[in-house]
Write a structure and sequence with these properties.
By secondary structure, this protein is of the alpha/beta class. Helix content is 47%, strand content 8%. The chain is built from 13 helices and 7 strands. A 7-stranded parallel beta sheet has the order 1-2-3-4-5-6-7. It is globular, with a radius of gyration of 19 Å.
Amino acid sequence: MPTTVPAYGNEAAGRLASMADVTASDGALRRFLHGLPGVDAVGLQARAATLGTRSIKTTAKAYAIDLAISMIDLTTLEGADTPGKVRALCAKGVHPDPTDRTAPKVAAICVYPDMVATAKEALGDSGIHVASVATAFPAGRAALPVKLADTRDAVAAGADEIDMVIDRGAFLSGRYLDVFEEIKAVKEACARPDGSAAHLKVIFETGELQTYDNVRRVSWLAMLAGADFIKTSTGKVAVNATPPVTLLMLEAVRDFHAATGVQVGVKPAGGIRTTKDAMKYLVMVNETLGDAWLTADWFRFGASSLLNDLLMQRQKLSTGRYSGPDYVTVD
């Protein structure tokens, strides 16, 4: 299924163009990013904690579970990945619960570039996207030509989405324009000859960014560079997605949309394992961005282990019995 570049309306395109001066030089970009309001850490954490206490009742919970399943990027990113493992993961993505064909499909299967063609063939016309990590994932330590070749290879193999990692060293050194230009270059590498393009998710590795202010700055930087999604983490470090960091990114997306009219998606990844966790994130999205973002087009979970818990909770709601982990497939 080809993915097309978002068609911004005239107003949104005009408002985005009006911000071109912000990225005209390293100094201008630095002034803009450091001019963003500072983050009230105590207030942010308190708000995230408050939203996490909201309860979701039975009927709404059933809807929310299915919604969360439909937002999952089911992922295998291991050195020991094989075509057989990828095909099995694709089968699970299409029919997460083999005993109940009413269970929704996941949003995407995420693999390394060399497994994209295998996943694409296995998924066929299911409508599930193939996402691929690129740009020397997860460390991002490679020269730009290597990163661009990595991206183009994945797109040529059929990837619908590219998950890139930023150069955290460059960002933390204050080389903001270098990071901006790299994201722009990867975005251009996502284009296909027919005019369509893979959607670009930009991974920040927020656990390495040290401050909430840096998370706000990198969110704006990535969106100005053309990110279709902003993503918390690779899932390969000790600290991955957290409610406060995700809330801060949701707020950045809200403010960017208000300023430009451009809608950007959000993907928390790593450490989200239970249905209760997923519900907290969905509440945050609803309260911060509203219904327009409560779809797989604009919000994703990078949390493969979450799927099994959602399926077990779904079975409990429908049967009244908690089936246990032996009744769901192991990835």
